[in-house]
Specification:
CATH superfamily of the largest domain: BEACH domain
Pfam families: Beach, PH_FAN, WD40
WD repeats: 639-680, 723-752
Domain BEACH: 283-569
Helix content: 10-25%
Radius of gyration: 33 Å
Strand order of the largest sheet: 11-10-9-8-14-13-12
Largest sheet: 7 strands, antiparallel
CATH class of the largest domain: Mainly Alpha
Keywords: Repeat, WD repeat
CATH topology of the largest domain: Neurobeachin, Chain: A, domain 1
CATH architecture of the largest domain: Orthogonal Bundle
Number of helices: 17
Number of domains: 4
Shape: globular
Domain BEACH-type PH: 183-279
Strand content: 25-35%
Length: 828
Amino acid sequence: MAFIEAVTQPKERFSLLLLDPGEIYFEDFSVFYYPPSPSEDKAIKRKQKGRLKICSKSVLFDPSDIQYPILRFPLRDVVKVESYDPQSLFSRLDSKNKVLQIVSNAVIGMKEGNVIEPFDFKREKSVKHMFSLNYNTVDSCVPLMCQLHRASTLSLADQSNMIRAIVLSRQSRVKFNTSWLEDIYEKIILESQGDHITPLVTNPGRIMLTCSRLYFQPFNNVDPNPVTKIKLSAIKRVIKRRFLLQQVGLEIYHGYDDACLYLAMKTEEERNILYNELVKQTDVHLEDMGTASMTLKWQNGVISNFDYLLYLNTMADRSINDLTQYPVFPWVIADYTSPVLDLESPSTFRDLSKPIGALNQERLASLKERAAEMPGPKFLYGSHYSTPGYVLFYLSRVAPDYVLCLQNGRFDHPDRMFNSVAETWNNCLNSATDFKELILEFYQPQYRDFLTNANAINFGIKQDGRSVAAVELPPWAKDPHDFISKNREALECDYVSKNLHHWIDLIFGYKQCGKEADEADNLFYYLTYEGAVDLESIKDPNERASLEVQIMEFGQTPKQLFTSPHPQRFSKVAAPVLVTGQAAADSSLLPAEEPVSQSSPKIEVPIFLETMANASDVDDSSIDKKWKSLEKNMPYLEHRLHKEAITDVKFSADLKSVFSVSQDTMLKMYSLEDQSQLRSVNMSTMALSCCFVMPNGKTIIVGCWDNNIYLYSVEYGRVVGTALAHDDAVSAIQWQNDTLLSASWDSTVKVWHCPLQTQNAGSSNPELMGELDHDSGVSCLHCNPVDVSTVVCGTQEGGLFIWDTSSCYVVSQHQVHTGAVGTAQFSS
């Protein structure tokens, strides 16, 4: 999930993005607004119905009619707030209440006609704005507004302290509304208070943990859904997070779509209490997030470079919910001028062993000269490679509301916006203040909208007379989708795979800080590093407020994950060849296979014009001639289906379809007649290793690295059976005569009773009948085509075992290879 997917236009015009970052929204009232007018009659005729919203640093009026702008009155520009009893103007109205009068030197107009555009700032001294409340008395809102107005006249730190006291007083009187509990018998485990964190927005509320659900109830009514509810059984991951360089955050991933609730508590102790109580609930079953195992999977090509970087970002406290710690990805391409992108040439790529700031030696020398003259703590780069401003620089076209929020209601100058990829890259190479890396959207083709101005936002006119439109792409990209696809292809290519560990050392590893960072020219401003300052120990409120602002604006270095050099990814090797039928008798006759691309695996279905004769009817020279003739044949059909390496391919019984499974966790069904994909099923969170098509073509048996065997019904389009088959990944499966055999890395082959008629109904899981133990992990198996009671198994240590499955007895065993056996089959 990316920020673009999370950004949705709110149904209501008002959102917390119209406030200052971190500002608190308290409550609202139904009112009539009477705009300043030269006469009383005109004021009454021009009245507007809407909601008056009281916030910690401003008051807003949100008209019901969207043709009128939302008006924001910053409290620092307000002269006075008072209950007003006019003698004439409202004597003709049916209101028995007094009128609220706001006298202000400034008003900000926003979203007039519901159009996203720069705010309209109007300054005029002591203008009177009057409101009549429809269902409340003026006295119900004036005291709070006067308190907040008084706070706005104080210094930044004193204002924050006074607002904090007001917030604490109001929120302490609010309890969780237990009527929102799904079940009245739910046992309450914990009730606490925290903030719901989304990009640039902090929304406080009540947290309730019960024996079956987690609830969050905001203190205000800004969200149309008053309470967020998460089933404990749906929670996948619970990650402790660093928020504003303090260990107070908790990110909770849940549901099939990996939705996320990001909470920030007041203290680390409160965060840890919630975490501990949550994870020990019996309904919570968390996924394994071990860094060591993920690194090993990446080294072996089980997961892609992109997925591994996303995982490292997650473990290093990077989240799409926090723009100060947004996931960071590297520039990998350095060529943005050539008409064709050559991924075989090293000159196409950026040097991943150096930070962006060290790629230009002349600039680096200048920065070092400056650093030598500055007092400690010294640093090379005054700006970071990832800040809220840089993230929104890239995403301004899809998140204009966030840009306006961060930049005080204004867009950047049109010529300073993200107008060209090549121009941005050149600026990162040569500018003395620009060292930014990329964000994950540059490697996800489905989020290509950030490169186009699809919403036709008016960002202004550039110096060349053109308006800001789509981002200018390099010559080698046909369109935004092609640009991002090639970016992703470059990220997964051999050159980057061999060198990516160097960049990981700089961003997440041992070269991130200290002496190694200094030697690698990778030193940033000290406040960007974790542990550089303890905000809780700072007693001076002004100093603390200043540091919080700096942390927000300068960005934050990821949490250090590795303290020694990160291992390099293993070189890609050729995929094992699946040999069937008579050709299995002499696999040396097969033509050499090319390595399977990890970035764009594909199914190739060649239809040969000649067939092999029976080996007993021809001599060796004839066989050699037959196989050599295949070199002239071209693939009959080629189709890209998977994102990762394909692990198994099977024809349907009628040879009209192909089923494939892959390390991308997907089962795919492809029609050879229609030349189109018919099914795409996400079977698990881990790689699929093998599949078998039942003779009737109605059920597919799938083996998975999560230790399970899945039965997928083609008719019903869903998984109809699951069996936890092994203690480690399932490596191979085969079905024959109502018997299913499954091999695993746990050194066993299991024999299951799996009748064909049962699978037609899709109502029963396989029944275990026996187990065959080996000395090492089993990599392949094959049943005797004539007698299912005989099976051959190959192991990861090169052994072949012949078994009698009826007695679970080893007929014979042979040490025939020095490495893992890829395929073993009986001759016909």
